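Lab notebook: predicted structure, single chain.

Context: the supervisor wants predicted structures on file for every construct in the current expression panel, including those that have not yet been purified. This is the next one on the list. No modifications to the sequence; it matches the entry in the shared construct table.
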Amino acid sequence: MARPVFGTSVRRVEDPHLIRGAGRYVDDLQPAGCLHAVFLRSHLAHATIARIDFTAASTAPGVVAVWSAADLADLEPLEIEAAVDGMPVPERRVLASGRVRHVGEAVAMLIAESPAQARDALELIEIDFEPLPAVTDMEHALREDASLLYPDLGSNLAFQKDAKHGPMKRSFDRADVIVHERLVNQRLIPAALEPRGALAWMDDGRLTLQVSSQSTYGVREAVAASLQLEKEDLRVIVEDVGGGFGSKGGCLGEEIAVAAAARRLQRPVKWIEERWENCAVTWHGRGQVQDVELAAQRDGTVLALRTRILADMGGHLEPYSSFIPTITPDLQTGCYRIAASQNSILGVYTNKAPTGPYRGAGRPEAAFLIERMMDRLAVELDMDPVDLRLRNFVSPSEFPYTNAADLTYDSGNYAGTLQRLVEIADYPRLRQVQARARRKGLLQGLGIATYVEVAAGSPADQATTRLESDGSITVITGSTPHGQGHQTTWAQIAADQFGVPVDRVRVVYGDSDLPAYAVGTFGSRSAAVSGAAVHQAAVALSTRLRELAAAAFEAAVPDIVLEDGRIQVRGVPTRGMPLAELARWAVQAGRGKELSVAAEFDPPDNVFPFGAHLAHVEVDRETGAVKVLRYVAVDDCGTVINPMIVDGQLHGGIAQGLAQALYEGAVYDEDGQLLTGNLTTYLLPTAADVPMFETERTVTPSPHNPMGVKGVGEGGTIGSTPAVANAVMDALRPLGIHNLDMPLTPSRIWEAIARSSGRTPSTAEP
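Prediction complete. Output recorded below exactly as produced.
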C-alpha cells in the first residue's frame, strides 16, 4: 500500500520550470498585432485639471488612440467596499476627471504600436494643472482648515467606526497601572518582483484578459461589471505571477482600461507597469497611527484596552481600502483574556497613494499594537514579558473563545506555543547571555511576540476532480497561486484519496472558463477553503469511482476498495483493475461524464492561526545599526499538509515583517511627493540582511474544515514585526528609551542614543 503523502515534505512541483526560465508572465506574451498602452500620470499630489490637449500626441508616429476620462465615461466606476453602513463612497473611475489626489494618478491613456512609440508620444500630451494644497499628515487632514480632497464631503474623514465592549470605566477605575503609547505602523510598498500587467484581446468576438493577479474570478467580476458585460462574455487567464502580497488581490483602473481598449480597437492591447508606477500607484499597505491605553493590575492581569486609530486611506478608496483597517480593532486584544475593549477607528483621506491589503492586512497592525503594549506593561511592572503573557492567555479549555469584540476563535493553545518557544530557544540562557553582554556595555535585547489572526471565511470555493483515460487525476482549483505551492499541496490532498503518487495528480488553475471558483488567493484562506474544496471533490470522486467499479464487477459499493491506483473487490485481487481501465470501462458503458465530480466548500466560520516568535538582537552604540543574532518562531496552522512549504511561507513572512521593523517605509514630503519611489530609495532587505530562521510548530486542528487546517501565508509577517521591535526596544531600555517609530533605522536609533546621553543629534557625528 502506498505511503500517505499528506503531511510529508514533498518537493514543490512548481519550481523546475521557473528555475529553468520557462515561466510565462504577462510581459512574455506578444501576440501578433499587439498594441501597447501607457498612462499619463499626475506629477502633483493635489490639483485640478485645467486643460489637456492630445493634438500633438495623437499624430505622433505609431499612436493609435489617446483617451481622457471623458472618452471612457461609458465605463462603470469601480466597485468599492464600504467599511461602515451609509458611509459616502466617492466614485473611483479608471482615469481621473477634474481633480487629481495623489502623485501618479492616471489622467490619460495612450496606445501605440510599440512601447517606445507610446512612451515618446506620452511626452507630447499637453496638460495644465492648477495646484491645490496637499495634506499628507492624517492629524492635519482632520483639522477644520485642512485642504479637502472631496469638498462635497465637508471633511477628509472617509469613515469612523466606534465600538465599546465590556466594563471600560470600571476597569480603568480599578487599574493599578495604566500604560499609554502612540504607535506608528508606517506605510509599506508591497514591491512584488513582477509589477502589475495586463494583456487583452478579442477571441472570436469574446473578450479575453490575461493579468498578473491573485484572483482570477475577482478580476472577471470587476472587469465585467465596469464594461457592463455578462461574466460569460469575458474570459480571464492567470498564469505565472511574480508575487502579489495582497497588492494584486483587487482589480484597479489600468486592467479595466486595457480590457476596454482591446474591445474598442479590436486588437490585442498590453500594459506593463513600470517600477516607479508600482511604487507610486499600486496600493500601499499599513499606514496607521494608534493611540493606545492599557489598564492592568499590579499582578499583571490586563483589565482593559482602549484605542484610537487613524487609518490612512490615501487619495481615494480602492476595492478593499476601508475594510482592511477595521480588522485591527477586532483583534486588538490578541491572544489575551481582556474583558473590556474600546476602539475608535477613523479612515482619513490624504494626498498619497491609496492603501489596501498587504500581507497580513489589518492583522499585523493589531498584533503590533497589543504586543508592544504588553512589553511596555512588562517594563512598567518589572515583570518578565513571557510571564506576563502566560498570565493573560486564553486557556485551551476556553475554546471556542469569543473575544471582547465578539469574534469567536475556533481553537488554540497559546501557552503551549509560547512554552515551546521558550524551550527550543533556551530563553533563560538567552537572558543570561544578555546580562553578560550588558555588563560589557553591549546593547543586546530579546523580543517576544505572540499573535492570533483571522483567516479563511466565506464565500464558498469550488473545485473539480477528474479521472483521466491514463489513470491520472486532474484537480481543477479556483485558487490563484503565486508562490504558495498549491500545485504541490492540492496534489497531496488528492493523491491519498486515490492511492496514487503525487506526480500522477495534475493541478490546473488560472482560467475563469474552468469549472471552479475562488474569491482569491489572499487572507491565508487557501488551504482552509480552496484546499478543503479540493478535499471534498477528491472524496466525492473516489466515492463515484467505487460506484462505477461496483457496477463493473456487479458487487456492492461497500465491498469496493481503492488503493495504490487500483480498484478492486475487497479481498479478491483477481476482481480488480487499474484506474485507467476503469476510465475506459466507464466511457464504453456510456458513463464517461461520471469520471468528473465538482464540489464546493463553504466554511462555517473563520479559522484562527497563532504563534509565538522570539528575536535576539544587538544594537551598535556608535552607529545605531541593528544585528539580528537569532530568530526563533513557533507557529500553529492546524494540521500541516506539507511541512517544507509551511516553513517556506514562514521564512518569507518573517523576512517581510522584519523588514518593516528595520528597513521599509514609504516616505512623502509635505507636498505629497513620494521620496521612496524606486528601489534605490525604498529600502528592501537582501538575503545578507536577514538571519537564519529557526522554525517549529505545534498542531491545534481547526473544527471548521474537514482537514483541520488553518492558514500560514501571513503568520510570519504578523509575528515578526513586534518581535523585532520589542527586541530593539529591550536593547535600548538601559538608556531610558522606551519607544521609537518604525522603521528602526540606524539613523533613528543613533539619534535616540545621542539624545539619551545628552548629545545633540544634529551636531554629533555618527
